[in-house]
């Protein structure tokens, strides 16, 4: 999984994931504890992308995965 932070202090992040990261939940195991919110599982399998309702992070499933 790679993180690409946006510009600005409160901009949402974009995270690209692959099938080894499924089932997808936010925050991920790689997230820092200080900015964690309650864990929520995100359904990304059908559409290939999803937004976290807590922090706005946009997750994209890599093509070919």
Structural write-up:
The chain has about 60 residues and is mostly beta strands. It has one domain. About 0% of the residues lie in helices and about 30% in strands. It has a four-stranded mixed beta sheet, with no helix packed on it. Strands 3-4 form a two-stranded antiparallel ribbon. About 10% of the residues have low confidence.
Write the layout of secondary structure elements.
Layout: E1 2-4, E2 14-17, E3 25-26, E4 40-41, E5 49-51, E6 58-61
Parallel strand pairs: 2-6
Antiparallel strand pairs: 1-2, 3-4, 5-6
Question: Which features characterize this protein?
Answer:
single chain, 65 residues, mainly beta, 4-stranded mixed β-sheet, 6 strands, 28% strand, globular
How many β-strands, per DSSP?
A: 6
Share of helix, binned: under 10%
The quaternary organization reads as: single chain
Give the averaged pLDDT, no decimals. 82
Count of separate structural domains: 1
Uncertain regions spanning at least 5 consecutive residues? 4-10
Q: Helices and strands: which structural class? A: mainly beta
**β-sheet strand percentage:** 25-35%
What general outline do the C-alpha atoms trace? globular
Largest pleated sheet? 4 strands, mixed
Radius of gyration: 11 Å
Count, helices: 0
- Output the strand order for the largest sheet: 1-2-6-5
How would you spell out the order of helices and strands?
Answer: EEEEEE
Distance separating the two termini? 12 Å
């Amino acid at each position: 999984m790679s993180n690409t932070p946006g510009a600005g202090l409160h901009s949402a992040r974009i995270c690209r994931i692959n099938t080894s990261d499924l089932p997808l939940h936010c925050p991920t195991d790689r997230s820092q504890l200080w900015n964690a919110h309650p864990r929520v599982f995100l359904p990304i399998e059908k559409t290939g992308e999803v937004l976290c309702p807590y922090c706005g992070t946009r997750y994209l499933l890599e093509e070919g995965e």
